[in-house]
Design goal:
The complex is a heterodimer of chains A (467) and B (116). Chain A is 29% helix and 26% strand. Chain A is α+β, with helices and mostly antiparallel strands and 467 residues long. Chain A is globular. In chain B, strands 2-3-5-4 form a four-stranded antiparallel beta sheet. A two-stranded antiparallel sheet of chain B has the order 1-6. The chains are: A alpha+beta (467), B alpha+beta (116).
Chain lengths: 467, 116
């Protein structure tokens, strides 16, 4: 029987009403289903650790209430398991929050699966670390280290479902593993059935970024038009016991599922397509086929798998000093000349007002910014329009807050002491948390699941097995 | 490549669509021909060398290209273009998400027989 995977969110900060039509469609179909919330990236994990650093009760997904409230009741009433990595840097905190939300919905008896074992910070100095091949930086010293989280696979999540969990809360888990877990639980696939594991993993890969497979992050007016992007439907992936899969979306929603939208997401954040590494399986996409089989229905086949990698990827977060940004706008006649003069004045001021080790970058937004290098190569070699609307942006980084404050204050001073007609000054600075990736041995990781708030020795009797 | 009677210079953006993804300091750009008939043109002209030149100002250290004929596309993997990555860069776009459109600005020589 078909199992349905519905996406409720594809990143931290995603639309919080996206899950509503997905859950409505899962209920209408009446087939076994799960709802997945993927809200944890490298950036958001660092932000979560920063939040928990400042407040020990924080550190889980800040939008958790807004994401769950509209759908929790319906999912619980219809046997739709919810799995999410919204635990981020504080899964226990997120479990407590889910429990409160369930109590408010009259379901104080909710079973919440609490997945643990991704946090290896306390053991980091004692285990064998290998640098991830895409990583060039040095391992930070102990004093700068904030956190270390392993990308767990699907196994502890399957364990939570086997305990009867209705909501499964995790911290760092490989994104596709969130989707693979309910498939393993439902179909009972073997952990060495590599082709099925690969298919389930790709179902997860296609669904994990929410609308990025169904028309989000795709539109390019005139070339790639997407209907009703304001109400884009989040994906539902239909998976069969044999591992075949179809990507679709709820009816009466915006967006589109086409060969093109699926192809773009298929390779998103993939490096070698013949060896996409996840904790559960190595996926080979070299023979993959993508085919439209109906309106907003795309079949993906030809996915192969081979044995899972020996080591698991770990994200290490460490204190990276301070960063600051400040901006000022110039518009109208000679705007580019005035913005460029402002940059020159600022650059000169910083040579004697800030230490030489201050990292700095000067963009003229509207002329050259995101494509440029930190040294402004494009800015120097690109002619400006005389009459335009430009925004000078200063970005700085330094281990000490005072120099970031001082440098960005120099941009503020352009208000009166810089070129004519500057306005719209904004300034912000914050602690920077940097990340680096390493590989650890599986034997150094102990991942497991418990039912939150239930004594360990009572947990067997609460197990409900397959849903 | 100079324009000639049987070739027109056009932007890659007219022939293909792309999406960027990042992990650490590594960027991938997935590129797909709108029309599968243009796949061979992409293969011949969107080479590792040309991509390396296009991203030279960003300090790219290596470009690897993985052709995917079944998808009429390719995956380009670029190392060290993110100048610190999502948590370390001074760039407004630390992910490098906008860089798919830097690639799509590449000039392509399209034989007129392949124009519609």
């Amino acid at each position: 029987m078909t199992f349905l995977l519905g996406s409720g969110a594809g990143f931290s900060g995603d639309r919080t009403d996206a899950a509503i039509p997905v859950v409505a469609e899962l209920i209408r179909r009446g087939q076994p289903a799960a709802l997945l919330f993927e809200t944890l990236g490298e950036r958001t994990l660092a932000a979560a650790h920063r939040a928990r650093h400042d407040d020990p009760d924080a550190g889980f997904e800040p939008l958790l209430d807004e994401l769950l409230e509209p759908v929790l009741d319906d999912c619980l009433a219809n046997g739709i398991a919810i799995l999410g990595n919204f635990g981020a840097a504080n899964p226990a905190g997120a479990c407590e929050r889910v429990k409160l939300l369930a109590e408010q919905a009259g379901r104080a008896d909710i079973r919440i699966g609490h997945v643990q074992g991704d946090d290896i910070r306390s053991r980091l100095s004692r285990i064998d670390l290998q640098r991830w091949e895409g990583e060039s930086g040095e391992m930070p010293g102990e004093e700068a280290l904030i956190s270390a989280n392993v990308y767990l696979g699907a196994a502890p999540l399957v364990e939570a479902l086997a305990l009867g969990a209705e909501v499964v809360v995790t911290g760092r888990v490989a994104d596709p593993s969130l989707f693979l877990a309910p498939l393993m639980h439902h179909f009972g696939w073997a952990w060495n059935d590599w082709d099925r594991l690969a298919a389930g993993t790709m179902a997860g890969h296609l669904g994990e970024c929410g609308s990025q497979v169904s028309g989000g992050y795709f539109a390019d007016p005139g070339l790639k038009d997407v209907p009703d992007l304001a109400t884009v439907g989040y994906p539902i992936i239909e998976v069969e016991e044999d591992g075949s899969l179809v990507v679709t979306k709820p009816p009466d929603t915006g967006g589109c599922v086409t060969e093109r939208t699926v192809k773009e997401q298929l390779l998103y954040e993939v490096h070698d397509p013949s060896g996409y590494l996840t904790p559960d399986v190595i996926v080979d996409l070299s023979g993959v086929r993508v085919r439209e089989i109906g309106p907003d229905r795309v079949a993906v086949s030809g996915i192969r798998g081979r044995p899972a990698p020996e080591r698991l990827k770990t994200t290490v977060c460490y204190a990276g000093g301070w960063q600051g940004e400040a901006e000022i706008s110039y518009a109208g006649p000679n705007a580019f000349g005035r913005a460029r003069l402002a940059a020159e004045v600022l650059r000169e001021r910083l040579t004697f007002r800030a230490p030489s080790e201050l990292r700095s970058r000067f963009d003229i937004i509207g002329h050259t910014s995101v494509f440029d290098s930190d040294t402004g190569d494009l800015q120097r070699h690109t002619a400006g329009q005389e009459n335009g609307d430009y925004r000078l942006r200063l970005a700085v980084g330094h281990p000490e807050r005072r120099w970031v404050e001082r440098a960005t204050q120099e941009l503020l001073a352009l208000y009166c002491a810089g070129p004519a007609g500057g306005g719209g000054v904004r300034r912000q600075f914050q602690r920077r948390i940097c990340t680096a990736s390493y590989l650890v041995k599986r034997s150094d990781v102990e991942a497991f699941a418990t039912l939150y708030g239930t004594p360990l020795n009572d947990q067997r009797s609460h197990g409900h097995g397959a849903q | 490549m100079a324009p000639s009677d049987d070739v027109n210079m056009i932007s890659l953006h007219r022939l293909a669509h792309a999406r960027a993804g990042d992990k650490g300091e590594r960027l991938n750009l997935a590129l797909f021909a709108y029309d599968p008939r243009h796949y061979e043109i992409l293969l011949a002209q969107v080479t590792e060398g040309r991509v390396q030149a296009l991203f030279a100002h960003r300090g790219v250290s290596q470009v690897r290209r993985y052709p995917l004929p079944g998808l009429a596309g390719m995956n380009l993997v670029l190392d060290d273009v993110l100048q610190g990555g999502v948590n370390g860069a001074l760039n407004l776009d630390g992910h490098g998400k906008t860089l798919s459109f830097l690639l799509l600005g590449m000039e392509i020589a399209l034989p007129t027989v392949l124009e519609e």
